[in-house]
Write a structure and sequence with these properties.
By secondary structure, the protein is mainly alpha-helical. Helix content is 83%, strand content 0%. The protein has four helices and no strands. The longest helix has 62 residues.
């Protein structure tokens, strides 16, 4: 019983001694940590803004007919079709190679093929969503520009060359 009391007293004394320096360090380092997070937020916001401006310049060039939007559409749709074909081929290989695939323990080849099929199906969907989004932004260009300027401020004034 006496040993437990001695250990508890020692832990209490060490905690009391360390409480003041740890409190001061947490106060000082907390401010630095918050400043670092704020700086990263600003950097990320600036990068996001630059990406939005690049996308706007692409849509604007399609709208002004300085770039061919149909070539862009064909490239996106072509890659989406290629990804869909790879995904469906992986599923067909699973069915033909391992028709009675074991779930427990999993077959490594089947797991790789399923992951391959899932990733390429996801790529195909993302490419089609980008195609739809580009087409939609181009169809309602004035609304798109107004929304973008409402979110990020004037766009054309900063990049007059685009």
């Amino acid at each position: 019983m006496l040993d437990r009391l001695d250990v508890g007293a020692a832990v209490g004394i060490v905690a009391l001694i360390l409480a003041i320096p740890v409190g001061v360090m947490s106060h000082v380092l907390g401010h630095r940590f918050l400043q670092q997070l704020e700086k990263r937020k600003l950097v990320k916001a600036n990068a996001t803004r630059q990406q939005a401006i690049r996308t706007y310049n692409l849509i604007k060039s399609f709208h002004n007919r300085t770039r061919d939007r149909y070539a862009y559409y064909l490239v996106l749709a072509g890659w989406a079709v290629i990804c869909a074909i790879v995904s469906s081929t992986s599923i067909i290989l699973i069915v033909f190679i391992k028709p009675n695939m074991q779930i427990n323990p999993p077959d490594p080849l089947a797991v790789v093929l399923i992951a391959f099929a899932f990733v390429f199906a996801l790529f195909a969907v993302v490419l089609m969503v980008v195609l739809y989004g580009t087409s939609r932004q181009l169809d309602r260009f004035d609304d798109y520009k107004a929304e973008l300027e409402q979110q990020w401020g004037p766009i054309d004034h900063e990049n007059p060359e685009a």
